[in-house]
Each structure stands twice: as C-alpha cells, then as structure tokens.
Amino acid sequence: MFRIVFAGFARQMLILGLIFSANTFGFAQKKQNKAQEVKLDPDAAVVSLIREAVHPLTNSERDYDPLMEIIGDARFVMLGEATHGTHEFYRERARITRRLIEEKGFNAVVIEADWTDAYRVNRFVRGEGIDKNAERALSGFERFPQWMWRNKDFRDFVNSIRSYNESRSAGTNKVGIFGMDLYGLTESIDAVVNYLKTVEPEAARRARKRYGCFARFRENPQLYGYEINSGTARSCQKEAQQQFDELQQLVAKQARNAKSNNELFNAYQNARVVKNAEAYYRAIYSRNISSWNLRDQHMADTLNALASHIESGEGKPAKIVVWAHNSHQGDARMTERASAGEHNVGQLIRQQHKNDTVLVGFTTYTGYVRAASEWNAPDERKKVRPALEGSYSALFHKTGVPNFLLLLRDKGNLSRELSTFRLQRAIGVIYLPRTERASHYFLARIAKQFDAVIHFDVTSAVEPIH
Questions:
Q1: Residue 230 CB neighbours (<10 A)
Q2: Measured between alpha carbons, how far is 52 from 73 in angstroms, rounded to an integer?
C-alpha cells in the first residue's frame, strides 16, 4: 500500500516537474525571443545616437540656447511645421521668434498667408490702420482655412509683437508681419488700384483698364485658369506683367532718390501677387508647368524683395523669420520630390543665401490636429494616428524623450544615419487618416533637409477664433 501511494506521489511530482520545466523553458524562450527582437531592431543604434544628442525641452527660457547658437548671424530663419493646425508648433515658433527679435535684431516675420491679409496685421502691430485689437486685424483672413491664422496662438503672438513695438523708443524701426502667398488675386488688384488713386489718378485708370481683364473671374480665379486652358477665355498675362513693370519702375525711381515708401512697396508687392497668381491659376490646369514651383518661386521672390525694401529703409541688413509648412521650408533637393523637378522656398533661399539661412523642421508622433476632411469643409479636431513604422516621427518616439530639439548640422555618425531616406509625415489643411500613407507621407533625408528639428511626441490642436 505504501509503495502504491509513494508511486502515485512520485508520478504527480514528475508531472509537476515537467510542467514547471516546460513553463520555465517557455519563459526563457520568450525572454530569448524578446532579446533577439531588441537585438534585431534596425533602429536601435540610431535611436541611441539620437537620445544622446537631443536637448530636452522643459519649458525653460534657455530651451533654445543651442538653436540660437547655430543661428548665429543668419538673416533668414525658416521655421516649419508638420501640420497646419498644431498648437505646440505655433507656440514654439512664437517663443523662438521673440528671442530672435529681442536678442538678434530680427525685424520681420513672414507667414504662409496672402500679402493683403497679412498686411492688415502688419499695420496693427505697427500701431497703424483702424483695427482696435488683434482679433479685428485677423478678421481679414476670410477664406479657407481661416483657423490657420485666426487662432488663439497666433492672436497672442500678434499681441506680443504689438507690445514689443510699443515698448520701443520713438524713431526706432518696428517689427513687421507680412505674407508671402499668392491666392489673393482679387484683393491685390483692389489694393493696387486704391493706392494709385491716392497718388496718380491717371495711373489708377491704366491699372483699372489692365485689370479689367480679370473682371469675370473676381469671385473664382480658378475658373480663369480652367477657361484659359480650355481655350474659352483670353489670357491676362500681358496686362498683369505691364502693371507690375510700371510699379517696379516707380520703386526703382524711389530707390535712386534714397527714399523709402511703405505704401508704394505694398502696391508693388500686390502687383507681384497679381502677376504670379495669373501664372499660377493657368498652371494648375496645365500638365507642362508646375504650379508648386511657381508658388514657391513667388514666396522666395517676396522674401528677397522684402529684404531689399527693409534694408533700403532701415539702412541695415534685413533679418527675417519665416513661418510655413515643412514641405515649403525644408530643402526640397533632399526629398523624393526633387526627382519630379520640384523646388521650394527653403531650397531657393538656402541656395541664394547659403551661409545666412537656417532651416528648422517640426515633427509629432500622435495627438490631435485642427484640419478639414476636404477643401472648404468645416474644420474639425482630428485624432492624429501614431506615426508609421519606418518614419522619422516613429524613430523620435522610440527615444522615450517626449519633447526635444535636435541639431543636425555636422553631427558625424548621427548626421550620416539621418541622411538616408525615411518616411516623413506632412498634414496640411486637410487630413485623411484612412489614406494616411498615400496622402501624408513622402521620403526625405532629414539631416540634409533641415539644420535642426524640434519634436513633440504628443500634440494638440489649435483653438480657432470664431
């Protein structure tokens, strides 16, 4: 009997031992598999390099000291954004811009917006015009997407520039805010004619006659481009060019007399908008001309013209900070779009002002964004999907550092690792999560595309001013 009981007990212990051994083996196997996974992670080495190189952002006044150091005496600082509707991007660009103004003497802020709408804000921050507060000054941004500039973050920034200008002693030059886009064809036509009416009625008559060519398309400039390409309308290219040439001659005459006239320059820039918008709307229906290239060339021309105007008026080099999307600000030669012959404003300014230009990109991993589901649709607070594996944003997420500044220029192994093509996300005014890979990603070499990148792992949407 004892032998039977003992044998049964032995069998149970044997079974338990086998189970324990199997569990132990399974645990060890899982641990080994996990170790192999970590070991095989192709990003592990570069993540380690990034983690060692980042400057964590702690909301300290000194957060951007390393960035200020590489900016040095640069005259053009291009501050990007991975989306058009992220609160953190607006907030941090404002922090950096205020330091550039106060510490390095920057005297102009240029935004990805139409010239006429931004010039109304420019008048406000300089204490000119009729607007009593920033929200009224921003009400000129009436077309889609209104939230891109009519939001609380940009309003607060505008107020801060107004306060800075008011604090300066009498007779000192003031910081201005300007636009560099070309969609406001109709508003720019009116601005040219209205200026000329005040200084030379006959010149205003000539401008009205030339711009009368656009009369049928005032409410829908895109229709102009469609009808030109379909052969049902006459081109206004000649008239737009003639008016631009006339104002260019007036500006040249002013320069010879060593005078600076802000209102004449405003009219001249509006004539540039009309000339280039005419070409742009023709190009969007043409297979042979890149409307993207025309638009970004216009942006670069605007920056250079503004720099020359500021220098002639203030007698010192212009220093300009630019706010626009990463897709405009990063050097296009370092993206897959270069193979299609596309360039952008960041590339053009870097080529023209090589040692005077610093390009800064912004990225995010997940969070929320203000965007629409289609053109002219209402804005929504949309969930941003976690960045795709193989993207720069996913790489930055793996560092475990939530918010950081990463300098990319001349960083040895790190620069080499980040100079290979990876996915980069770009969310504009429209966000389509269901087709995210096709709609919002392209290949880029970030260490050559930008001089620095600022990453916020989890971001929030801008709050619009309704």
A1: 9
A2: 27
The answer to whether the CB of 298 falls within 8 A of the CB of 280 is yes
Is the distance from CB of 83 to CB of 422 less than 8 angstroms? no
C-alpha span between 446 and 453 (Å, rounded): 8
CA 173-76-355 angle, to 5 degrees, is: 125
CA distances from 182 to 259, 272, 283 (A): 27, 9, 13
* CB 462 within 8 Å of CB 138: no
The pTM assigned to this predicted structure is 0.90
> β-strand 452-459 against 357-371: which pairing, if any?
parallel
Number of C-beta neighbours around residue 152 at 10 A: 16
Give strand pairing partners of 195: none
Q: What is the mean pLDDT of the chain?
A: 92
| Residue 26: pLDDT over 70 | no
Domain topology for 45-112+319-466:
EreA/ChaN-like  fold (3.40.1660)
Q: How many CA atoms, within 13 angstroms, populate the side-chain half-sphere of residue 353?
A: 22
* Domains of the chain, residue spans: 2-40, 45-112+319-466, 182-316
